[in-house]
């Protein structure tokens, strides 16, 4: 029996609507059984971090320079909003800029060098990571020349990072550098 025949279930419009109604009733029943949650006050919604300060700054995700108002609490960037009066962004952001706070607070952010050993990621020291990578790169350069490497920038690089990335490629001895948005 082919997979096409196995999935050939005939459900009419009426039967589908009945099933949808039943699942909606079941979902509403479960929601009603959930414990009540206190609503936040207007003051809590306006300022969930009392004592924080708002800092006008510039988004560094790309070189456009859109305005951000960062909210900083105890030295930690906790929230952001667009700068409505900024002359470049005029109160808007691109998808990268609006999500740039994830660079700081996401749980998925890699904070230490990792190396895959026997199929599992293991934490290694910064010295070990730098030494292993530099040895491999220098070996490639010695065997195949500086043009054997391609330096590919990212949209997550700030303007300053892109500048130093280009300088590193020039020091390496190649013009093989580009940006991922052009590929």
From TrEMBL:
Keyword Ribosomal protein: no
UniProt enzyme class: oxidoreductase
One matching Pfam family: Molybdopterin
Keywords recorded for this protein, A-Z: 4Fe-4S, Iron, Iron-sulfur, Metal-binding, Oxidoreductase
Transmembrane region(s): none
GO molecular function: 4 iron, 4 sulfur cluster binding; electron transfer activity; formate dehydrogenase (NAD+) activity; molybdenum ion binding
Assigned GO CC terms: cell envelope
Limits of the 4Fe-4S Mo/W bis-MGD-type domain: 52-108
GO process annotations (BP): anaerobic respiration
E.C. code: 1.17.1.9
Xref: InterPro entries: Mopterin_OxRdtase, Mopterin_OxRdtase_4Fe-4S_dom, MopterinOxRdtase_cofactor_BS, TAT_signal
Subcellular location: Cell envelope
Superkingdom of the source species: Bacteria
UniProt similarity note: Belongs to the prokaryotic molybdopterin-containing oxidoreductase family.
The name this protein goes by in its record: Formate dehydrogenase major subunit
């Amino acid at each position: 029996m082919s997979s096409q025949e196995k999935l050939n279930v005939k459900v009419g419009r009426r039967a589908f609507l009945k099933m949808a109604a039943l699942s909606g009733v079941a979902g509403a029943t479960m929601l009603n059984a959930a414990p009540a949650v206190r609503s936040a006050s207007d003051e809590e919604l306006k300022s969930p971090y009392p004592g924080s300060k708002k800092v006008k700054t510039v988004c560094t995700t790309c070189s456009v320079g859109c305005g951000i108002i960062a909210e900083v609490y105890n030295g930690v960037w906790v929230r952001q909003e667009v700068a409505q009066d900024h002359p470049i962004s005029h109160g808007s952001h691109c998808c990268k800029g609006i999500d740039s706070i994830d660079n700081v607070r996401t749980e998925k952010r890699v904070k230490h060098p990792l190396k895959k050993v026997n199929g599992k990621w293991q934490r290694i020291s910064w010295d070990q990571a730098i030494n292993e990578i530099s040895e491999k790169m220098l070996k490639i350069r010695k065997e195949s020349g500086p043009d054997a490497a391609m330096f590919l920038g990212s949209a997550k690089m700030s303007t300053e990072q892109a500048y130093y990335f280009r300088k590193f490629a020039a020091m390496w001895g190649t013009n093989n550098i580009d940006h991922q948005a052009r590929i």
